[in-house]
Amino acid sequence: MGKHDAPEEAQQGAPEWIVTFSDMISLLVTFFVMLMSFSTMEEQEAAVIVGAFGQNTGGILEGNPNTTATSPPRERMLATHPLRGATKPHSRPAEELPENLEEMGQKLTEQHVEIDFDQVSDGLLIRFGEDCAFPPGSAQPNVALERSLRELGRVLCHYPHLIVIEGHTDDHVAPTPSLPDESALSLARAVRAARVLMEGNDMSRDLLQVSGLGSSRQLAPNDTAAGRARNRRVEVRVMALSKTRADALQAEFRARKDAEGR
């Protein structure tokens, strides 16, 4: 008789393909967990935008308007402590905003000042005319600027956009105890403008921020009185904010308000 190979012994445990299949499933689960984490991070990012630098500006928004302002770092957008105002749901589609702003500009009369709208990379930049310049060393808006801000507020209050008011100065700032430098003065101008923007308008305070940029972004040279006047200004940025982020900001403030009321 010829010799026959001994029969192979059956392998113990699961087949080898099961191991490979399990590895693939593990990788897929890890991938989906990472996707869920990224989604959660986006909502959390939107929710903490307003609170990120709140301590840097809280002292100037409430209480005595002459409170000493804390100078913020240059070129940094600062979120305010929640400004007083209503939380009326936005009632108009965001895509209607440019048309509404254009209509507002067409309604200007001799009693109104010029308002310029420029498309920028992060949204819309709104500048006011020369009649809206601040007096030297002052954070109080003049009559022309107050009128323009209120008119602008009546349009912006209907849209779910993040509104950033930026204050600016010339480079001839004389320090005072309450406004010790350019950054403090520019921030105070932005805060006063924000209050006027909200007066009489049912604006959502959750989507309003202020920033003080000092003399870092000049529109004109500071070697003439006219040039310095152009630089003593505020500008309004309408930021491109998705509905998801706007809703997240609103939800965060509602939750915070409910927690404070307990």
Give the helix/strand layout.
Elements: H1 16-48, H2 58-61, H3 97-106, E1 115-120, E2 123-128, H4 143-156, E3 162-167, H5 182-198, E4 208-212, H6 225-231, E5 234-239, H7 243-261
Parallel strand pairs: 3-4
Antiparallel strand pairs: 1-2, 2-5, 3-5
Helix pairs in contact: 1-7, 3-4, 4-5
How is this structure best described in words?
This protein is of the alpha+beta class and 262 residues long. The protein has one domain (49-261): 60s Ribosomal Protein L30, Chain: A (2-Layer Sandwich). Helices cover 40% and strands 11% of the residues. It has helices at residues 16-48, 58-61, 97-106, 143-156, 182-198, 225-231, 243-261, and strands spanning 115-120, 123-128, 162-167, 208-212, 234-239. The chain has a five-stranded mixed β-sheet with strand order 1-2-5-3-4. Helix 5 (182-198) links the parallel strand 3 (162-167) and strand 4 (208-212).
